[in-house]
Amino acid sequence: MKNILTIALCLLLAVGAASAKGKKQTKKTARINDAAFVADYQAMMDSLNVVGSNVVVVKDNKIIYSHSFGLKNRELGEDMTPDVIFRIASISKSFTATAIMQLVEKGKVDLKADVNKYLDFKVQNPKYPDVPITLEMLLSHTSSLNDSQGYWVSFDAVDPAINPDYAKCYNDYKPGTGYEYCNYAFNIMSAVIEKVTGTRFDRYIVKNVMKPLGLKGSHCVDDLDSTRFATLYAMEHGAFVPQPQAYARPDVLDHYQLCKHTARLSAAGGVKITASDLAKYMLMHMNYGKSPLAKKRVISEASSRRMQTVITDDANAYVDKAEKERAGLGLVRADEYTPGIELVGHTGGAYGLRSAMFFDPDKKYGFVVITNGSASRKVLQRSLTLMHEHFIGPLPKK
Q: By three-state DSSP, how is residue 54 classified?
């Protein structure tokens, strides 16, 4: 009789435990499949003609929500899934800036130094031959460099020893006094990284920024599973057209020369990563250099705060008034995407993709959204607004 009672008691405890586990799973599932958000987000995608999207929400220093919408590939009818890898475009710039700050801490580079100290080619605005262009200027888009002559193939355009028209790469204002968003500047920074470390740029980023955070991403497609790439779509003549060049393998990888071929790895926009891993990276910046999910500090608190400190408020010349930004070093502060609330982060746009990573370092929340094709530039603002209103709270009324 005693044995029967013991068995019965064990069964009751097992059932209770299973019931409690079921309730916990139900609660978690209910949160991850928030019906109201899903309905609103899907309606937004339908109205703006979005192919697919992955979103992640961080709150109280934790990833509390993620969801996949739409299609990874329209032609094959493949659904978007959480493990899909995207080229994230200009959010990549923050990875480059993070690497530079590591080298600053090691005493290998100086943000106030003339960048030519670390290059094999010359970077100098010929209109101001006595004004050095510094690493800080390059990282904050205040160097006076522009992208008008191309930036993604090589450094030949900016090199006066090769290009007699190199002056076209520079604006008319003095370095440090104006702002124009510049991809070329960040590709030049990747050459600096190679020069002072003797390591190929993409490999340095993987080893020193991604691996300490447990991220599986890279600038180099050779490191990644190409079957997981989200097909990117650009709108051309009213139709979505696949953009396979977004993941094209640079031919220079087979005969790579440090500081010469690094532009092809695209420090300005070439990181490929999942939305969830990008959120883990965001947590590091949200916590000023050390993620709560990782043991190792990636950059110092001082370096992280410097990246988030606006430099361009003092710039008095803007080539494009519509793109006036409050830029730090590889990160910006903006309320364009969450009107009335300024967040820190960056956006990306290339090959039809639109991406955003924005966070509040004080209140410890943030958002990642990546879309692989949309007919409207409004998709990021609409996405981040919905995420804020559903998971954090209403935005201030105008």
A: strand
